[in-house]
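User: Structure please.
Assistant: Input sequence and predicted structure:
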Amino acid sequence: MDLLTHYLQIILLGIVEGVTEFLPISSTGHLLIAEHLLGTNEPDVFNVVIQAGAILAVVFIYWHKIIGLISNLDSAESRNYLLKIILAFVITGVLGFTLTSILHLKLPETLTPVAWATLIGGLVIFALEFFSKSLYPHEDISWLEAIFFGLAQILAGIFPGTSRSGATIMTGLAMGMKRPAATEFSFLIGIPTMFAASGLELVKYRKDLTTGGHQLIIDIALGFVVSTIVAFFVVKWLLRFVISHTFNGFATYRVILGVVLLVALANHAFPETDAEKPEPVSIPTQAEPAQTQAPATVPANTDTSSSSPVTNVSPRALPVDSTDQTNTAPATNNVPAP
């Protein structure tokens, strides 16, 4: 693969992450699908860092809200709202640590569970949108609702393709919250949750950053920047969208995508593998010529008693493989007569 094609793949993955991280369609599932389609398999540390780029975009958007909550702790409303964010984060963190570190839960890296989670998640969104019409809409989040938000984040972590934002927003709708209020709380609890998860993953894969070479660093930086920029505009758009629209459009997309994936997998259109992530490797550039094997030379004091005669051939023309060169060809004129 040439370097330009490689960078185009990195940019596409950054765009996919930025678009899907906060839409209720699952960024993890779409990154896995994109890697299958592009024929690439980026190291885990790459996916972790570009995810952090999308989170940073939300920090920029909610900067005034975050500063306002912290600077107005003397207000009971601000203090309680911040404590509810912390409560949801702690629930997610404790259960997440239990599942991954104690129970050693390992997320699958195959498309089949992603396809099923995508399909089922779409059907659940349809059901919750219909069910929420009979509830009394409210904007204030209760302590019980904050607990369920934390549990919803764990659900998204267990089943790739579920979507963290989708699971939390739908939880809010199921409990009668208005879409803008549920969306905002989902994004705010995502900031500490996803930054903490990304930080732990970076510690886990820190050796990849030092052994992957400068090419991996360039890839991560490029994907991070692209993801941040794209996520910023996508989140801005979504916050305006949810004011007057339902999530049925996203549900329709998920159902169609899930069905298409399952049909494609049944017909072996996608390779269904569960291979380990590859070690990071650097891609040689024109400034880094590939290593060539040193040409073989003929020793000056060749033993003429050998059963393999020596031919008078230039060293550059000698084969460099290790095959047996014993033959019955007659000796050439460079061997002295007996």
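The chain has twelve helices and no strands.
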